[in-house]
Automatic annotation (TrEMBL):
PANTHER family: MITOCHONDRIAL OUTER MEMBRANE PROTEIN PORIN 2-LIKE ISOFORM X1 (PTHR11743:SF59), VOLTAGE-DEPENDENT ANION-SELECTIVE CHANNEL (PTHR11743). This is Putative Porin/voltage-dependent anion-selective channel protein. It comes from the Eukaryota. GO terms for cellular component: mitochondrial outer membrane. One of its GO terms (molecular function) is voltage-gated monoatomic anion channel activity. Belongs to the eukaryotic mitochondrial porin (TC 1.B.8.1) family.
Amino acid sequence: MLYTQRHEYLKHIDKLLVMLSHSQTNASYVFLSLCQNSATLSFSGNLLPSTKFIASAKFPNYKTSMLKIQYLGFHKHSAVTISVVLNQLPSANLSATLNISSIAIGMKATYKTSSSQFAAYDAGISVTKPICDASIILADKGDLIRASFVHYFDQGRKIAAVAEITRRFSKKENNLTVGGSCSVDHHTTIKAKLDNHGKLNALLMHKFKPKSYLTISGEFNTIALDKHPKIGLALALSL
């Protein structure tokens, strides 16, 4: 009996898919998945110009149901996305991105109706040039700001120097890290970094076959010379 009911459901959805593909709503698909104790109904389509709707409802556990709206209309290299978890205490996520030439701007935020507060919000801006990259990120609800700069010494971006500074406002902490990387050849890369606490890290990674790597890493505290350095060895194989 259960198999017969499920088969009839699937036949009905197949007919619905054909109807929607020829309708004027520009719907992409409607999909129904059936499990032993639950069912999930999903919908994706463009109901308005430059706007994409995605909705999913799970029964009987509706707490994981979700509605997502993405708007792509105000600029060809931009997007605004809103997603809402449909339960008794819904949470809403908002994200926006904008790319203009070599500049990218983005933000995201999460609002909890249970506490009537923003649980998280981040924002950032980055600039990409042929010989350098720079970015500034505001994270942890405005408590952390991170600025980084990468300079490439060749057109192939094989040799680079990087500097990053972070500021934690709640703890009044500043951290500075400088480093560099060098691609010796197509298979071997060397990286190193030093922070303002005197911690020096170095890494050598060699690819001896596709998706297979041998990595040797080391850590040394240049301030606490009485501490022994740490050495690590890792092997990743893809068969």
